[in-house]
Amino acid sequence: MDLATFHPVILFLALVQVVLALVEPPANVTLECHNMHNVLRWDYDQLVPGLRFRVNIGSIGGSPNGIWVDSPTKQADVSFLSDPSNEYIISVTAVIGQNESGSAPPDAIEFSYFKDALSERICSLDLPSVNVTTLHDGKILVRFMHPWLLYKTNKPSSQKKSKRNKDGQISKELPVFRYMVEAVHQVRPSITSEVAYGIDKA
Ligand SMILES: *[C@@H]1O[C@H](CO)[C@@H](O)[C@H](O)[C@H]1NC(C)=O
Ligand SMILES: *[C@@H]1O[C@H](CO)[C@@H](O)[C@H](O)[C@H]1NC(C)=O
Ligand SMILES: *[C@@H]1O[C@H](CO)[C@@H](O)[C@H](O)[C@H]1NC(C)=O
Fold first, then answer.
1. In testing the pocket of ligand 2, which one of 15, 17, 22 has its CB within 8 Å of the most ligand atoms?
2. CA 114 – CA 124 distance, rounded (Å)
3. Mean pLDDT throughout 128-132?
4. Phi-psi region for residue 45, left (φ > 0), alpha (ψ -120 to 50) or beta?
5. pTM value?
6. What pLDDT, on the 0 to 100 scale, is given for residue 187?
7. pLDDT higher for 151 or 29?
8. What are the domain boundaries of the chain?
9. What are residue 65's DSSP bridge partners?
């Protein structure tokens, strides 16, 4: 092969390296994700004019996406990345004009609310407050709000608009979730029950 054909490529790669080296990547990138409230934060030393940050978002089956943050803000609300059936990958890049840094952290952050996801970060929900009522025939009634209704809806920051029907209810079906009721301190042997609970709010 002719060496000359390589030269532009090598030159281009070298230029990319130089350009990348000019803009420092963000440091100390952390993701908080709990109760469908997700915030990505990072540090940056030199807040020069025109500095912007691009939050790079990938998801399973979704096309890559980015949101822009102007400095001096060094955080982004990504609560809309809370679909329990999806896994996300996120990183942040510093951009000055045409020049940009490498993305940080280098391996990006993978996260999901799906408990069996392969992501390094599994985000969690607190169980909503539970009302327990004893019924006359030895049964108990356990009542609590569906976590999706508690944490997901009425989120002004949510980018995906929930479709509401005429009655103002969420027309999308609520995701099924499981919970366990464990009886302790009872005369008969303890019974553990697991109940799949999905409501189609009517
Ligand atoms: C990253 O965090 C470390 C430890 O808290 C701190 O010393 C350092 O200054 C931070 N980096 C930036 C760019 O702020
Ligand atoms: C981008 O980097 C080049 C050098 O590679 C520099 O000449 C140019 O001024 C930089 N642009 C900005 C907006 O910083
Ligand atoms: C639990 O009980 C309180 C007080 O009676 C009531 O306000 C609340 O709505 C109940 N929550 C559920 C989920 O039933």
1. 22
2. 9
3. 88
4. alpha
5. 0.71
6. 59
7. 29
8. 3-122, 131-200
9. 57
pLDDT digits (tens, 9 = 90+) for 2-15: 444 445 444 444 54
C-alpha 149/C-alpha 151 separation (Å) is 6
For 141-180, b where at least 16 C-beta lie within 10 A, e where not — what string? eeeeebbbebbbbebeeeeeeeeeeeeeeeeeebeeeeee
Evaluate whether 69 touches 53 at the Cβ level (below 8 Å).
Answer: yes
Q: Which residues line ligand 3 (CB under 6 A)?
A: 131, 143-145
Residues facing 41 on adjacent strands: 30, 75
Closest CA to 92 of 5, 27, 3, 181: 27
Q: Is 190 or 179 the better-scoring residue by pLDDT?
A: 179
H, E, C per residue of 5-55: HCHHHHHHHHHHHHHHHHCCCCEEEEEEEECCEEEEEEECCCCCCCEEEEE
Q: Which residue has the tokens 């940050």?
A: 53
- Residue with CA at minimum distance from ligand 1 atom 12: 43
Task: Kindly indicate whether the domain formed by 3-122 is annotated with CATH number 3.40.50.720.
Answer: no
- Residue position matching structure tokens 């969420």: 170
Identify the residue whose C-alpha is closest to ligand 1 atom 5: 28
